[in-house]
């Protein structure tokens, strides 16, 4: 974690309100801390991959049901990861745009080897 973001970390056990962050750069270290459980990260990765595949099928078939499939895959896998394994509430409930961005930045960082799967 970048030392300049040390102030964004809360003491152990303290709740952090994701609405407090004024930029995505401030939010992302918090986002990563909410994905400490490896199974949660894996479920995010699977869900994001399935969402991308669903969007590709949507483009090829023009069948709008694949959009629903993409949303279900992306959010469904992620929310199972949070509620069952991470035991926290997804930040998407309070910071939907930053959380959506965080999903894709973490996905990229997993592929780049910066975040362990």
Folded structure, characterized:
The protein is mostly helical. The chain has one domain (about 25-110). Helix content is about 60%, strand content about 0%. The protein is globular and about 45 Å long. It starts with about 25 loop residues before the first helix and ends in a 6-residue tail after the last helix. This is DUF962 domain-containing protein. Keywords: Membrane, Transmembrane, Transmembrane helix.
Helix tally?
A: 4
| H/E element sequence | HHHH
Strand content: under 5%
Poorly predicted residue ranges: 1-12
Share of residues in helices: 55-70%
Mean pLDDT: 89
How far is it from the N-terminal to the C-terminal residue, by CA? 17 Å
Measured on Cα atoms, how large is the radius of gyration?
Answer: 15 Å
**Count of individual domains:** 1
Apparent shape: globular
Which class of secondary structure composition applies to the elements? Answer: mainly alpha
The biggest sheet, with number of strands, parallel, antiparallel or mixed sense and barrel status, is:
none
The count of DSSP E runs of length 2 or more, i.e. the number of strands, is 0
InterPro entries: Mpo1-like
Organism: Pseudacidovorax intermedius
Protein name: DUF962 domain-containing protein
Transmembrane segments: 43-60, 66-85
């Amino acid at each position: 974690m970048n030392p300049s973001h040390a102030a964004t970390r809360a003491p152990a056990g303290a709740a952090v309100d994701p609405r407090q962050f004024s930029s995505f750069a401030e939010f992302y270290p918090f986002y990563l801390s909410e994905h400490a459980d490896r199974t949660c990260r894996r479920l995010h990765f699977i869900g994001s991959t399935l969402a991308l595949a669903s969007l590709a099928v949507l483009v090829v078939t023009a069948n709008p049901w694949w959009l629903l499939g993409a949303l279900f895959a992306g959010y469904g896998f992620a929310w199972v990861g949070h509620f069952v394994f991470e035991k926290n509430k997804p930040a998407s409930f309070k910071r939907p745009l930053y959380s959506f961005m965080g999903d894709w930045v973490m996905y990229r960082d997993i592929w780049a080897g910066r975040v362990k799967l």
